Amino acid sequence: MNDPIIDIVVLALLVLAAAWSVLSTRLLRAVIGLAFASILVTTLLFRLDSPLAAVFELSVCAGLISAVFLGAITLSQLETDQNIVEQAKERIRRYWYLPLLLLLVGVAIIHKTLPSIPDVPVVNEDVRQVLWTSRHLDLLGQVVILVAGAFGVTILFKEARKHER
Amino acid sequence: MLTLFVLVPLLVLLVLNVPWSHLLHLPSRHFPVHAPLLAVLSLGFANVVFGLALPALQVDVELPILNQLHFGFVADELTRVFLISIGLVVCAAALVSQRALASETSQRNFYSVMLISLAGMNGTVLLSDFFSLYVFLEVTGVASFILIAFEKNLFAVEGAFRYFLMSVVATVFMLASVGLIVLSLGDTSFSAVQLALKSPGATPGLLKTGVVLYMVGLFIKGGLVPFHGWLPGAYSAAPSGVSVLLAGIVTKVSGIYALVRLVRSVIGLDPSLSTVFLVVGSISIVVGAVAAMTQSDLKRVLAYSSISQVGYIVIALGAGTELGIVAATFHLFNHAIFKSLLFVDSASVESSIGTTDMGRMGGLGAKMPWTGATTGIGMMSAAGIPPFSGFWSKLLIIVALWKAEHEGFACLAVLASILTLGYFMAVQYRAFFGKPAENVTTAKESGPGFIIPAVVFALITVVIGAFFPLIENSPLSFLLLNKALPW
Amino acid sequence: MSGELLTLYVAAIALVGIAGLYYLLVTTNLIRALIGVELMMKAVTLSLILAGRLTGHVGLAQSLVITLIVVEVVVMVVAVGLILLVHRHTNRLNARELNNIKG
Questions:
Q1: At what angle are helices B298-317 and B271-293 packed, to 10 degrees?
Q2: How much is the pTM?
Q3: Do C101 and B157 touch (CB under 8 A)?
């Protein structure tokens, strides 16, 4: 199969999506760029023999987080057109050397090719089993943080009451 | 058994938040109004009691269900010191916060999140894995963000967000380092890394880079210079009880506990690491102390002083000896006590005259004798004046540095101590002595919610300081990590 | 995995991470700061899975990443909650000049 080609294309697209997300003038486009980057990362995770993580990444990052961001943007004021023009000028002043920086770093890294690493056979362990047997402490942590998140939402997202400080 | 430290707060949390009055069809006035506060207090107290009694409890008890719930928690002397500190500070913070919580719902929510913070911190000091440490630090962090922003005023929310931003950068460093550790070892537990670092010939470069990167993340979370930007803002903007919690224990558990644990259980005493600790520690000491002198807000003085004291702990680690680790741990415990004491007092002042701006204080000592006295004790302990506990821990640090032939740093520690004494005396004088300022004349001493924790902590400082020479051979010797002192 | 491909992976991870960090440091808009955070998280996720693939510990890496994703989603939601509170007070999201916090 065209093994390396797919990887190379997806990697390139990923960097472009990230750069586009950072450089775009409209907030909405930045969020869409982020979602697109998530989808590309999902593809890469599949290519790296990690289907379960890929599914999580897709549903949570590409889905849930984008929804949360879009919700946040909707709940707050959408930028007016005049705002955007002003901000665009500001941004060019501040962001012009990001592509340059990325290019330099990219070239510096690629310049020195890393040694080839032989394909280690995948250790025969089922993810679900690993999670349950050796990483159950993390599972406990997940439970606790989800509870914390529930409280966070309850406390922080409440509408202002009349006697709010 | 150790799992209970994390599970019990969660279970209590569950119980607290069940809508009992609906379920049992009883009017809510039949239920104790202060149930959430009592829950937090009893769990904090349990932390202290069980922390003290830990060796007796580690006998293998054959409990049917609990044996299934083995999460791989371990405890040693360092853990015990922290369990006790966590318990004490949580109790104090809970008591202090009581006054500011208006409605029953907000009480329940606030104390529930405090329980989560307790569970998170307990978990942090009981585990032995790099990645799990990250998970539980995030738990503690999230609880902290919510608590800081609890009163929803702009100042506090901004402080919380700034804390969040720096914390997340630290997280990225820590996760990147876990990636490096997985790459070189395939196992993220402390013991595996310790083994790999000891045995020669493995890929030390990659692993070492990973561990160093992890420590940089911890420096950020612990508020060490130059990553301390978030700290003064978060400490001063948070509600008073939350400041007690943050300054007394959360920042310590997040950053410093992990550093001490890494040195003790993973890295051992590496000379190249010592240099890093010495440098970072001394910069923090100096910057913290100098900045503290320029502040006009009491909470900010205390915040910068915390940065300075944490610098002391790190510099003790830099001594590179067993004594250094002992000194660091002991100073850590003492700092939890006297810094919480000072923040409790600042909360007391704030509730009494409505501000922490020292320009508007003066002559408080006459109106608030208990607060004034305990503040004096706390500040003298912080400055390292005998016979308070702070003196002994600072002495240990200086001795450790001197014996490790870092005399220059020892002198720096002494000089900074004098500086600390200077600004604290100035604060004490300005706030508590002299002519009463205009809004002070109507000030009254604060209620028991503030006085009790202040007095208890002041007593602890005094008792530990006075009886320090006897601690070595007493049941409290774990405070010194069961090591003998060099005299 | 061939050396060239590995280099490309590392380069991509580094670039995405740097872009995220840069975004976080430079932007004045709070939501954009979160996007920068998310980009950094993606870089780290990829690096963890890559490390797992290279050593064969695919199961371990995936477990770590799954936990990571769950934990970070909660952190993100709380952060968005904070941002909405800022917005409620100031009606803007460009509050990076947090003047009250300085000093």
A1: 160
A2: 0.90
A3: no
